[in-house]
């Protein structure tokens, strides 16, 4: 009889400890997710205010927390504004690894190739034009490429 009580008490204490650990993990996960969203929102806000270095720093921190396309898109926008085509190309490629049909990822990649490989840029834009035949951004970039 005593053995049964010992077993029950051990089982209950184990379950309570396990439940507590799960709860802590969920709290930490929620905290990271909340912090990530705050970093993304603040990075967007700073980018709109043209505080590009601060925005880039926050987007990079967000990407470290959760490597996804949202943080990468902000980073790509900043590299595009700064005309940092080397980092823009690397970031756009990462976006397209995550989401191959991403419109902005393709636009940023085409922008990155404008200076060094106009044929590659034109190829990317032509693929986009097939998907979005009325898109003025794509049409304007192709016009510029054809004039050069």
Low-confidence stretches: none
Please give the alpha-carbon distance between the first and last residues. 91 Å
Question: What general form does the structure show?
Answer: elongated
**CATH level-1 class:** Mainly Alpha
Strand runs, count: 0
* CATH superfamily placement: Tetratricopeptide repeat domain
Quote the beta fraction: under 5%
Q: How many structural domains in the coordinates? A: 1
CATH fold-level topology:
Serine Threonine Protein Phosphatase 5, Tetratricopeptide repeat
Q: List the secondary-structure elements in sequence, H or E.
A: HHHHHHH
Estimate percent helicity: over 70%
Question: What keyword list fits this structure?
Answer:
single chain; 148 residues; Serine Threonine Protein Phosphatase 5, Tetratricopeptide repeat
What is the element layout, followed by pairings?
Layout: H1 2-48, H2 52-65, H3 69-82, H4 85-98, H5 103-113, H6 118-131, H7 136-147
Helix pairs in contact: 1-2, 1-3, 2-3, 3-4, 3-5, 4-5, 5-6, 6-7
Describe what this molecule looks like in 3D:
With 148 residues, this protein is mainly α. It has a single domain (33-147), classed as Tetratricopeptide repeat domain (Serine Threonine Protein Phosphatase 5, Tetratricopeptide repeat), CATH 1.25.40.10. It contains 7 helices and no strands. The protein is elongated, with a radius of gyration of 24 Å.
């Amino acid at each position: 009889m005593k053995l049964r009580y010992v077993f029950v008490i051990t089982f209950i204490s184990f379950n309570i400890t396990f439940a507590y650990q799960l709860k802590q993990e969920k709290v930490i996960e929620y905290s990271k997710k909340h912090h990530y969203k705050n970093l993304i929102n603040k990075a967007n806000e700073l980018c709109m205010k043209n505080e590009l270095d601060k925005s880039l720093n926050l987007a990079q921190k967000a990407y470290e927390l959760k490597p996804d396309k949202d943080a990468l898109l902000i980073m790509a926008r900043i590299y595009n504004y700064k005309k940092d085509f080397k980092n823009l190309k690397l970031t756009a490629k990462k976006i397209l690894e995550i989401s191959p049909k991403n419109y902005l990822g393709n636009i940023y990649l085409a922008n990155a190739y404008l200076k060094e490989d106009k044929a590659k840029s034109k190829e990317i834009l032509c693929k986009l034009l097939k998907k979005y035949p009325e898109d003025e951004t794509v049409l304007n970039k192709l016009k510029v490429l054809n004039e050069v």
